């Protein structure tokens, strides 16, 4: 089995509220939320998971104060790549902060769940602002349904609830199975403090279409993973490689 490494790439950090990430938990607590994307190192193809968003868009589109750390191209250059080098972009889902640079990868096929794509073009108003259609109208999509093997040791796992078609990405590494969660959260969602854990072992994402479904997805992913990689976990800032 191949052993991959996951390289966290970070162009943008957004100031947001913990309530966006964790449901009914620490409302009013500000968090500097990194908008990561990831390069899976060690595959035959050049594979990204999501493509993040620029600070300017975070502020102009959603009003979040945001810090520009670098550009998408600058972050990619950190692993020796250019947008045209990318063969495959795995979209965990199509919220704007996860697909804003996908169109720059002009040679890439884009893996997304059929459910997510259908919903993204006519979202329920409840989460309608999360989808910015011009970001994904012209992509070279490959639609997936259910569990899907991208390459030996890289598998897509349905993880709905945050959005209808969210998928997680399970990646074999020398330290076991690493799972990029797909749904937006931090490590605290998976490891709540003792007083919360007595009632529930995980905290459902603050942003969701179906809170219970998102909760079940969290439990399933937690049970499968040796290494959990939440989408917006601040402690991964400055981490060069997982593992
Ligand atoms: Zn997100």
Short description:
The chain has 243 residues and is an alpha/beta fold.
Quickly name the level 1 CATH class: Alpha Beta
- Average per-residue pLDDT, rounded, comes to 96
CA-CA gap between termini: 16 Å
* Total count of helical runs of at least 4 residues: 8
Q: What do these coordinates show?
A:
With 243 residues, the protein is of the alpha/beta class. The protein has one domain: Metallo-beta-lactamase, Chain A. The protein is 21% helix and 28% strand. It has eight helices and twelve strands. The strands form two sheets. A seven-stranded mixed beta sheet has the order 4-1-2-3-5-6-7. A five-stranded mixed beta sheet has the order 8-9-10-11-12, with helices on one face. The radius of gyration is 16 Å and the shape is globular. It starts with a strand and ends in a 14-residue tail after the last strand. Bound molecules: zinc ion. Zinc ion binds next to helix 4.
């Amino acid at each position: 089995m191949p052993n991959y490494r996951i390289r966290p790439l970070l162009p943008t950090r957004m100031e947001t509220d913990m309530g966006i990430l964790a449901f009914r938990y620490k409302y009013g607590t500000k968090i500097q939320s990194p908008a990561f994307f990831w390069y899976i190192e060690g595959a035959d193809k050049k594979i990204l998971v999501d493509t993040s968003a620029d600070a300017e868009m975070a502020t102009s589109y959603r009003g979040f104060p945001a810090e520009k750390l670098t550009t998408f191209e600058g972050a990619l250059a950190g692993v020796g790549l250019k947008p045209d080098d990318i063969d495959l972009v795995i979209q965990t889902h199509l919220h704007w902060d996860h697909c804003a640079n996908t169109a720059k990868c002009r040679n890439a096929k884009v893996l997304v769940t059929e459910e997510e794509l259908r919903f993204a073009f006519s979202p329920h108003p409840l989460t309608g602002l999360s989808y910015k259609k011009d970001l994904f109208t012209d992509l070279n999509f490959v639609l997936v349904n259910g569990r899907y093997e991208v390459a030996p040791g890289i598998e897509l796992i349905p993880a709905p609830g945050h959005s209808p078609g969210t998928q997680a990405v399970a990646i074999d590494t020398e330290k076991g199975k690493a799972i990029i969660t797909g749904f937006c959260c931090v490590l605290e969602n998976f490891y709540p403090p003792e007083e919360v854990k007595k009632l529930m072992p995980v905290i459902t994402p603050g942003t969701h279409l179906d809170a219970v479904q998102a909760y079940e997805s969290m439990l399933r992913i937690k049970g499968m993973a040796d290494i959990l990689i939440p989408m917006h976990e601040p402690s991964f800032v400055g981490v060069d490689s997982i593992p």
